[in-house]
């Protein structure tokens, strides 16, 4: 069984999804036209009776992946997964570094920017990376609500107690006593915790420094658990290098330390989903786990969404999963901060337009193409002169021969895409990422 195709009547109202074979016939006979790609939707050009059945939409909300499932009675009509971008914060940090260095290097008359933050102007402000993920969760739910006839919406949300995740025995007044209780600064607390002793050579006295175990460039934070006391003799460049004492601390700590960013995001997302969909039915992960075991489904984002949709038994289920992934189309850096492999010096003279090629010879970035004399298909991810790079929705290069580049003369257009790409893979080939 394949995933169903969503249908809109000629008046713009949602109808029951149809089989792909039916959709192909309607398109071939000129009785329908495609109007959406994510998810694929057709609109009828003639009148229909519009018979509708009860439909449920299950959503497994998340920070990295969103599971989506459409069910009706005992049938799963559609199952899919959306992969959200995780590089927004890193790109914003890079842009801030470029702007700061340029301001200090060329435009010293420009004052530093620190009093114009948007959080001082609006309530409920979120960092751009967090706001982007929250909005994508809401917008993808709205996409499916728009192509389904009066669906019952079921959403799984997360609720986490970060204090109890750090200390399982915490209770009562203990929530009011954080790590820094009784101390004025983080540095003062770390020094007192380590007894003013270097944690590498175990010597007291001398010039002490506070060292990040997991570097901030690697996602580390200024929380006390990520800081240790190190003397000036041990806090050297050599000890930071692979094989050095501090680098060994970093590797050991990285293996056992769990970030709480995901839990924090889910707490933020829960409140925004409540406000955006007040009529939806919400549930938590523990309930989903028990229900999924009762249905005999394996752990996956789309299977969680099927379970969340409140289906009681399954008689029909698609053998494939529709995967959606966002495509980054712009490169805003004016030059290379780090020289690419094979180049000794960074390229600081190349113009922005030359480095941000969006189209070439009738093809655009993210166009869905097929290599001639082959059944291999994929999305254009970049151009190099008369050639291009082609990737599938999972980020793997589509290669014929030993080179990643494919000549533009050897590919043919299937369809033009926006900044979202989609592909359908077999459910038994799906792996949790």
Task: Explain the overall architecture.
Helix content is 26%, strand content 24%. The protein has 433 residues and is α+β, with helices and mostly antiparallel strands. The protein folds into three domains: 5-86 and 130-160 and 262-326, 2-Layer Sandwich (Nucleotidyltransferase, domain 5); 172-256, no CATH class; 352-416, SH3 type barrels (Roll). The strands form five sheets. The chain has a seven-stranded mixed beta sheet. A hairpin with a 2-residue loop joins β6 and β7. It is globular.
Low-confidence segments, ≥5 residues, pLDDT <50? none
Estimate the mean pLDDT confidence: 84
Q: Oligomerization state of this entry?
A: single chain
Report the CATH C-level class of the largest domain. Alpha Beta
- The name of the CATH architecture of the largest domain is 2-Layer Sandwich
Give the terminus-to-terminus CA distance.
25 Å
CATH topology category name of the largest domain: Nucleotidyltransferase, domain 5
Supply Rg.
27 Å
Tell the overall outline: globular
Residues in helix, %:
25-40%
The proportion of residues in beta strands is 15-25%
Q: What is the CATH superfamily classification of the largest domain?
A: ATPase, nucleotide binding domain
How many domains make up the 3D coordinates?
A: 3
Keywords: Endonuclease, Hydrolase, Nuclease
Protein name: RNA-guided endonuclease IscB
GO molecular function: endonuclease activity; nucleic acid binding; zinc ion binding
Pfam families: HNH (PF01844), RRXRR (PF14239)
């Amino acid at each position: 069984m394949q995933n169903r195709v969503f249908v809109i009547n000629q008046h713009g109202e949602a109808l029951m999804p149809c089989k792909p074979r039916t959709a192909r016939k309607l398109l071939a006979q000129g009785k329908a036209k495609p109007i959406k790609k994510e998810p694929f939707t057709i609109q009828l050009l003639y009148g229909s009776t519009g018979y509708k059945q009860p439909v449920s939409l299950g959503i497994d909300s998340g920070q990295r992946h969103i599971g989506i499932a459409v069910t009706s009675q005992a049938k799963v009509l559609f199952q899919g997964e959306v992969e959200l971008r995780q590089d927004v914060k890193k790109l914003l940090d890079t842009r801030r570094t470029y702007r700061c260095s340029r301001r200090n290097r060329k435009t010293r008359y420009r004052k530093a920017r620190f009093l114009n933050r948007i959080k001082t102007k609006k309530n409920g402000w979120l960092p751009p990376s967090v706001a982007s993920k929250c909005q994508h969760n809401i917008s993808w739910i709205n996409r499916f609500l728009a192509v389904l006839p009066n669906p019952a919406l079921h959403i799984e949300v997360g609720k986490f107690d970060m204090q109890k995740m750090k200390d399982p025995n915490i209770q009562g007044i203990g929530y009011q006593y954080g790590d820094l209780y009784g101390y004025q600064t983080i540095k003062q607390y770390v020094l007192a915790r380590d007894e003013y002793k270097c944690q590498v050579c175990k010597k007291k006295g001398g010039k002490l420094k506070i060292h990040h175990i997991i570097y901030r460039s690697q996602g580390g934070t200024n929380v006390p658990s990520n800081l240790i006391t190190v003397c000036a003799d041990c806090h050297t460049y050599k000890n930071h290098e692979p094989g050095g004492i501090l680098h060994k601390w970093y590797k050991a700590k990285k293996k056992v330390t769990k970030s709480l960013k995901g839990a924090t995001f889910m707490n933020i997302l829960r409140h925004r989903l409540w406000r955006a969909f007040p009529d939806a039915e919400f549930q938590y992960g523990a309930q989903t786990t028990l229900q999924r075991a009762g249905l005999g489904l394996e752990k996956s984002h789309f299977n969680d969404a099927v379970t969340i949709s409140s289906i009681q038994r399954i008689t029909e289920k698609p053998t494939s999963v529709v995967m959606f992934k966002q495509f980054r189309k712009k490169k805003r850096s004016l030059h290379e901060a780090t020289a690419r492999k094979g180049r000794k010096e960074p390229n600081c003279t190349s113009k922005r337009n030359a480095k941000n090629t969006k189209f070439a010879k009738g093809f655009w970035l993210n166009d869905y193409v097929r290599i001639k004399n082959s059944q291999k298909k994929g999305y254009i991810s970049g151009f190099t002169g008369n050639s291009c790079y082609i990737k599938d929705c999972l980020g793997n290069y589509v290669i014929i021969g030993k080179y990643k580049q494919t000549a533009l003369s050897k590919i043919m257009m299937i369809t033009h895409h926006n900044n979202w790409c989609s592909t359908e893979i077999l459910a038994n080939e799906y792996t949790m990422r």
